[in-house]
Amino acid sequence: MHRLIYELGESLRIAWTQILANRTRSSLTALGVVIGIIAVTLMGTAINGIDTGFDRSLSLLGDDVLYVTKTPWGPSEDFALFRNRRKISTDYAAQINRIIADTPNTLLELAVPAPVVFKTVSRGGRKVDTVYTLGTTNDFTRTSTTECERGRFITEAESRGAISVCVIGLDIATSLFPSENPIGETIEVGNHLFRIVGVFAKQGSFLGLFSWDQQVVIPVGALKKYFVADEDAAIRVKVKSKLRLLEAKEELTGIMRRIRGLLPEKRDDFSLNEQQAFRSTIGPIKTGIALAGIFITGLSLFVGAIGIMNITFVSVKERTREIGTRKALGARRSSILMQFLIEAVTICLIGGLIGIVLSGAAFIGLSSAVPSFPVSFSFGLTFIALLVSVLTGIVSGFAPAWSASRLDPIDALRYE
User: d(Cα 224, Cα 90) in Å, to the nearest integer?
Assistant: First the structure.
């Protein structure tokens, strides 16, 4: 063990001396590894960022909430069939709640209507177009992680009475009331006046499609009275345990078939959706990014490995007499093999560290320039990058190191 430690230390010293003696050559050789490691870390950062942003977006949907809609979420080949289905009524929420109340040991907890229209919201000379306007009841907060930063949510009396009150997203508040407190003020939603009773806390965007901070929530009765009498709504149904989501989904299917009056031989004319629908959609996208990243990374590292292998072969040729001298003095093949392997691995590690530093700088710059962009740079990613660097050094340096260790000492000493 003592001899191994001594040889390892001596090999590191010789490797470092050679790298310093050939700074330019070593730097150019490590360039391919630098590019490869940057590709590794940026690919990992992109995939982690997608996961982080995706999970953050889906958390707003709730992992214990089922959505009753006319059509399923995500791409479908039967769009014509779904389009001709009967509409989903907001009254279904009340019917579901009555069935829940009458069902012992039910897995469902609560249903709320959630029809949506897009309206222009204005106040004075300021306006925001195409605002996500949601009609619901006072129980909406029980099915959502949404909280009010200022004010309050709509009350049961306001919900039952279809009172013209609203809760607005943070971006709406900032756009219409840049220097005032919006609570108690009045805004126009469409062409109707609504009094602001609350402002939601910041929530962010949903999969980059739209911002939850640009929404207005009003009583469902007010939405039906002013905007849509014949609505095609969504119903949000909270389940008691997300661990029994599948069973809850089957129970809700039975309830919806009962409400819709479907005979046993009839197919469902509604869809139950959950987070998993979006996760299934994003899976192929992540796989595509990963495959593209692996190809680019592999190509970069291959070029870097070829460069290191080439420069190590050159180094072996240049130091053939030195190898012969060491062998003549009793150096073992394993010592020669270790020396050149360590030189190759050291160059790769230096390249890897430079690549990590450059990737970290790019991550910090991107995070500062675009704070909302979901990027994630982890220590696990740094470990993977260093491991890839070491493996690249071992693979690229093994052939020349092996040839050096197999040199005959007499032939090596005669080498000119």
Answer: 9
